[in-house]
Design a protein that fits this description.
Length: 114
Amino acid sequence: MKISELAARTGLSAHTIRYYERIGLMPAAKRDGSKHRFYDERALVWVEFLGNLRTTGMPIREMLDYARLRAAGAGTEARRKAMLTQHRETVRLRVRVLADCLDVLDAKIAGYGD
């Protein structure tokens, strides 16, 4: 798929996708005969995963560390798992804090009555 299709399917701009490539968050795209970027389904899955990491608040530098380990391949699985496990705990804590804040908001709203 062309960069415009990848952008449309992921919600990212073509500029962001090119930025991700430039900083090493994504591997360099293959090029077609016209030298246009061409992406396969694996790129789509990867960009969607990056979107999940971003949504959950993982800093770009940690995403880059994870991407470097992923690119290094076999032998890095334990480190990648540890990174994701740590991030999951951070997300779980944030969810608990947000749930507590939501309870406070609900109580405040209820205090106004009907």
